[in-house]
Design brief:
- The protein is an alpha+beta fold.
- It has 6 domains: 5-75 and 220-261, ATPase, nucleotide binding domain (Nucleotidyltransferase, domain 5); 80-211, Rossmann fold (3-Layer(aba) Sandwich), CATH 3.40.50; 266-333 and 442-495, no CATH class; 346-434, no CATH class; 501-611, no CATH class; 629-696, no CATH class.
- The chain is globular.
- The strands form 9 sheets. Strands 13, 14, 15, 21, 24, 25, 32, 35 and 36 form a 9-stranded mixed beta sheet that branches.
- The longest helix has 31 residues, at 202-232.
- Mean pLDDT is 89; it is low at 316-323.
Length: 699
Amino acid sequence: MTYLYRLGIDVGGTFTDAILINEATGETRIAKVPSTPKDPSIGFLKAIERILREADIKTEDVGYLVHGTTVATNAIIEGNLAPTGFLTTEGFRDMLEIQRQIRPALYDLLFEKPRPLVPRYRCYGIPERLGPSGQVLTTLDESAVVKAAHELKQEGVEAIAVCYLFSFRNPAHEKRTREILQQIFPEAVISISSDVAPEIREYFRASTTVINAGVQPLVGRYLSNIEKRLRGAGLKGELLIMQSSGGVLTFEAARTKPVFMVESGPAAGVIVSAHLGRVLGFDNVMSFDMGGTTAKAGLIEHGTPHITKEYEVGTAARAERGAKGAGYPIRTPVIDLVEIGAGGGSIAWVDAGGMLRVGPHSAGADPGPVCYGLGGTEPTITDANLVLHRLDADHFLGGEIRLDEQAAYRAIKEKCADPLGLGVVEVAIGIVEIANTAMINAARRISVQRGHDPRDFVLVAFGGAGPLHANRLAAELEIPTLLVPVSPGTTSAMGLLVTDLKHDYSATLIQRTDRLDAEAVNRRFREMEDRGRKALLGEGMEGARIGFERQVEMRYVGQSYELPVPLPDGKVEDALDGMLRQFHEEHERAYGFAAPAEPVEFVTLRLTAVGGIAKPKLRELPRRDRDVSAARRAVRKVYFAESGGFVDCPSYDRYKLAADGVIDGPAIVEEMDSTTVIHPGFGAAVDRYGNLLIRANKK
């Protein structure tokens, strides 16, 4: 059977976005529905039902559905992991309690560590011990495993995590433990660290394994529920989940390793930014995604998104190079993001010291901003933009929601303006500028603090609220070009459809480069390639479309942290000199110095098995001249700080813009899922695919 359509569904904190692409014509259709935080699957299924109904498409015609979700992240943040037991080497039972010595703020003496993922009474120290090279020092006490299994079964746990010391060198004890647990407690989900994260640093490995075990029952039920209902509705196509590293997994693979999908949704935005950059000829791209709850910034250098393994999930999920200590670490590849609590629904408030603050709390999807008229009482960034007339009350979401400007005005007045003794408009622009400053700082953290100059990048802005604020960010960061894609409010959903099937593998192998056992390195990579090829072939991928990406994490001997260096195809001994040069250059860029005379060592080998999936083509617009008067909708007073108040500002219907059109700022460009603000002193050009390229006017 020939399928005609691809469908992407991205569940966000405020809205659930759907995008449908006709593979033959490239035509796209989008839909947005409010998210349902209590049960994300409800919003997910409503989005599918709506977009297929509006497109008059049968579910049988959809051959490819990709889902981005934060269901795993939310379970961890809310402390809703399934009841889990933990088995580790005797003497290390308190590993999850001790955690690390660091804290987010060095001098914060009141900081409290995150609550242990597993309570101490469900943690067991098992007599066994391996040496650092994997040699058996103490044999596994199987009777202790049997006793722990019986006790955990009586406790009613649903999942068990196993993490023994040096199991990344020799997994025999962990595998035998799993066999015993499965015999005694077959209904429990069991995760072993040598499968999930076979790397050094036992607490990181244990945390990753416990999270994988604890969310597995929840994710399994969520995916099974969705799959059952989709199959019942007649959808026979492939079902895939976005993973944190930017690839996709089958539903079946995601059920067994859900820790790889913890930061599923935000990764899609960075992937689509990289895709747009490749299509349009921009190698260096900074992605800026501002939705209803958070804003996220990511970096793509030389066409490749930055990947990190220093990732934490806790009170707020984030991926930042350098562990912070506020959450639970996860040792899986994750798109490098800086995420802050500044979205369209972020609440403005006055603190005890009389200062105006914005976020991190959000009005979310329920009740939402005050202007939605759904019961919200706290003023938000969206309310401030409406008071400044940057949003059109009659055309929000294509006119589906009629915004209440008076309610937004009253909320800002009562909650913020009156306590501060200021005017409502003055406070509204203050709310917007405070949010902008927080987002500018986030962009600097992903660029300047990583050793990159923002002026060397193109800013790609999307999300429902991203284009409202991006022009201001680009101006402050001196980024020369701002790109706003078509349908920016559903761009992350588009990212779900332009990524490949991926499986990530790793192996710790600590060896100095001047004493390198090259054959051991090559053998480990061959083993990981075999596993990856087998997995992809088992998922129906053609052998000709399978490829591999290899990396080695390297460091100077004696260092605590590593830097990833790509390993080209071929034998490691042939590429070693080039890798060493690249390591020194990367160390210079990241830390400001290099020491070429110092010995270097390999630490962890990483491999990504990639199954290439055909990318949908961008649809080209008809060409006209520079005149955009046919798309002009109206003129209204809009507030701009640089103009000192409200000024006449034309608004344009984006769907009527043709290629080569030019818009002079100040101007507003409106579409169903987002609004783009072009500030005074800037202009926008429409490219052949309908993207807006916003640049400062030449002086």
